[in-house]
């Protein structure tokens, strides 16, 4: 199943809104890998890798959902 960048961005925003943390763990010009971590900012419980250009643009300059 192919998931578009807008869906991935919404997933990242929901994750943050629920108090959990996501972090960029790997980034190249072509793709990004993001770790989804528990609400306490600890253990990684899921991850995704995407080469969607909308997601890459949205993530430009971001390394995590933590401010």
What's the helix count?
2
Return the domain count. 1
Largest sheet: 3 strands, antiparallel
Number of strands: 3
For the largest sheet, list the strands in their spatial order.
1-2-3
Percentage of β-strand residues: 25-35%
Name the overall outline: globular
- Strand-pairing-aware structural class: alpha+beta
Order of helices and strands: HEEEH
Terminal CA distance reads: 32 Å
Radius of gyration equals 11 Å
Low-confidence stretches: none
The average pLDDT is 92
Residues in helices, as a percent range: 25-40%
What is the gist of this entry?
The protein has helices at residues 5-17, 53-58; strands spanning 21-27, 32-37, 44-50. It is of the alpha+beta class and 67 residues long.
Describe the 3D structure.
The protein has 67 residues and is α+β, with helices and mostly antiparallel strands. The chain has helices spanning 5-17, 53-58; strands spanning 21-27, 32-37, 44-50. The chain has a three-stranded antiparallel sheet, with helices on one face. A hairpin with a 6-residue loop joins strand 2 and strand 3 (44-50).
């Amino acid at each position: 199943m192919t998931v578009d960048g807008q869906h991935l961005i919404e997933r990242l925003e929901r994750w943050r809104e629920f108090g959990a943390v996501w972090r960029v763990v790997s980034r190249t010009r072509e793709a990004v890998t993001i770790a989804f971590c528990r609400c306490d900012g600890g253990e990684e419980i899921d991850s995704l890798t995407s080469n969607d250009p909308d997601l890459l643009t949205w993530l430009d300059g971001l390394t995590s959902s933590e401010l």
